[in-house]
Amino acid sequence: MLPPAALRRPLAAAAARLARARARPQVLASLATGPRQNNSIFYEIRTYDIKPSKMKEFVEMVNKYIHFRTAHSELVGFWSAELGAMNKVVHVWKYENFAHRTAVRHALANDKDWQGKFISPALPLIEKQHNEVAYLVPWCQLGKPPKEGGVYEWVTFQMKPGGPALWGEAFQAAINAHINTGYTKLIGVFHTEYGLLNTVHVIWWNESPDHRAAGRHSAHEDARVVAAVRDSVRFLESQQNMLLIPLQCSPLK
After folding, report:
1. C-beta separation of 51 from 127 below 8 A
2. Which residues contact 231 (CB under 8 A, 6 or more apart)?
C-alpha cells in the first residue's frame, strides 16, 4: 500500500488543475477594455474639409437639402469649425445598429432627390471626407444645451492603448470635475470603435467663446479640477479642440 503522502499528491495536483480551470474566465475578463452602453446604438462622426472658396455655398446647400437626408436617419448635430480648424464641418448621425446603417446607406443610394439635389452638386465642393464610429461611454447620456444660441467645443483626446479599463475612471473624474464648476454643459462623451482607436471625443456647450474662456480660467485655479486633470494626463498621448458653430439645420443649436 502507498504511504498517505503519496496518495495525497495526485489529489493535490487534480485540485490545482481544477482551480486553474475555474480561474481562466476571470483572467480573460480582466483583459476587457471596459464597459459599454447596454444597447447597440452607435454614432457615426463625419468630418468634411471644404474647399475654402466653396464653404458658404456648401453650408447653404446643407441647410436647404438636409431634410432629404434626415428622412432616413437621425441627425444629432451639424457644425462648422470657427476656431481650431478652417473650412471644416462636423456632423453626427445616430444608428440603432450596423444593420440599420446598412439599410439607410442603401436607401440613400436610391434616393433620387438626395443624390440629384445634394450629392451630385456637393461633391465637387469637398476636398476630403473622414468618418468614425463611436459609442457613448456608459456613464454618459447624450445631452442638450439649456438654450439655443451658444457655441460648442469639440475636444479630441488620444488615449494610451488599453481602453476605458485602463483610463476610464481617471478620465471620468476629470470630466466630472469640469462639470462641477458649472461654467460649461456636457453634451456627450464618445469612444471610437472604428477609426483611430483609443480616441475620445467630448462635446461641450458654452454660452459664448468669452464665457468659455472665463470659465476655463476659473477652472484652472480650482484645486479639484487641477488634481483630477493631473491624474488623467498619465493616460493621455495628445489632445486637440475646435470651436464649432451649429448650422441652421442642426438639432443641437
Report:
1. yes
2. 170, 173, 174
Say how far apart CA 202 and CA 204 lie, in whole Å: 7
Q: Tens of pLDDT along 187-213?
A: 999 999 999 999 999 999 999 999 999
Q: Crossing angle, helix 164-181 and helix 209-219, to 10 degrees?
A: 110
CB of 225 closer than 8 Å to CB of 173: no
Question: What are the grid coordinates assigned to 243, written together?
Answer: 470651436
> Chain centroid to CA 123: how far?
26
Strands 74-83 and 236-246: antiparallel
Q: Hunting for cell 474566465 — which residue is that?
A: 25
Whole-structure pTM value: 0.85
**CA–CA separation, 36 vs 40, rounded Å?**
10
Q: Determine the pLDDT at residue 22.
A: 44
DSSP state of 119: I
- For residue 48, what are the contacts with CB-CB under 8 A and spacing of at least 6? 88, 89, 126, 128, 129, 130
Give SS3 for 237: strand
204 strand-pairing partners: 153, 186
pLDDT at 32: 45
Q: How many other CB atoms are found less than 10 A from the CB of residue 50?
A: 22
Secondary structure letter of residue 184 according to DSSP: S
User: What's the rounded Cα separation, in Å, for the pair 85 and 243?
Assistant: 8
Instruction: Judge whether 206 and 184 are in contact, CB under 8 Å.
Output: yes
Distance CA 100, CA 178 (A): 35
DSSP 3-state assignment of 23?
Answer: helix
Whole-angstrom distance, CA of residue 12 vs CA of residue 18: 10
Three-state DSSP at 85 gives coil
**pLDDT average, residue stretch 162-180:** 93
